[in-house]
Structures are given as structure tokens and as C-alpha cells.
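input
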Amino acid sequence: MESLHCLLMKAHTRMHRSIMSRAAGLGLTPGQPKVLEYLLRYGESDQKTIASCCEIEPATAGSILNRMEEAGLVRRERHEGNRRSLYVTLTREGKEMAEKMEVIFEDAEKQVLSSLTEEQREMLKALLERVSAAFPE
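output
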């Protein structure tokens, strides 16, 4: 059997390729689908929080958000009393795109989980959470 890190990387790469090939068909670039997913799930947020939750560097998040703003998917605004942070929200077009991505993410999960029993699915999720928690943020 392959090493754990090879298996995790292989699983991630294959799932990511599947998702990104469909996302590219929607005109999205890498990084944008997970930002859309985050904003759909949690709503308005500041750039730093988005970067942290999406596991990307703040500067990278800034570049991704610039392209998303240019494409009309998000809007960035400053809140009164907080001049330092830009708050990001989905536009109507962004919400529609996020909902399309949600279907793509669900399809990829169904494909991955289809060969597992319900017990194995729950175990896999629990184990992946523990593996992720083993590394400091």
C-alpha cells in the first residue's frame, strides 16, 4: 500500500481536477470555487477570514477577489467605523455561480462516496477531521 501522504495527495488531486474541469467550464479560475462556497455558506466576511478558512494566503485571496470583483461575482466594501477591512459579499451573479458550484461539489462527493457504506463515509469524514486537526494552522 502507498504511504498516507501519497494517498491523501492522490485523492485530493483527482477530486480537485474533477471539480476544476467543471468550474473552468463556468469560467472560474483556481481558488474562486472555494471562495464562492465559503461566501454562500457563511455570508459576508472580511478578506482575512476568507483567506484563513479557504487555506490560502491573504495576498492570494486578494488576487482571487480582484478577479471575482471584475467578473461581477463579489462586491467589496468598507464598513463604517472599520477602515482597515474590506468586507466581501456575493452579488446576485455570484450567488447563482456559487449555487452552480454547490452542485458540482455535491456531484464530486457523491462520486467519491458512492463506493462506501454509510458507516465508512462517517468514519472517513471523522478521520480526515482528525488528520487535519493534527497540523497547526
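quick obs: The chain has a mean pLDDT of 94.
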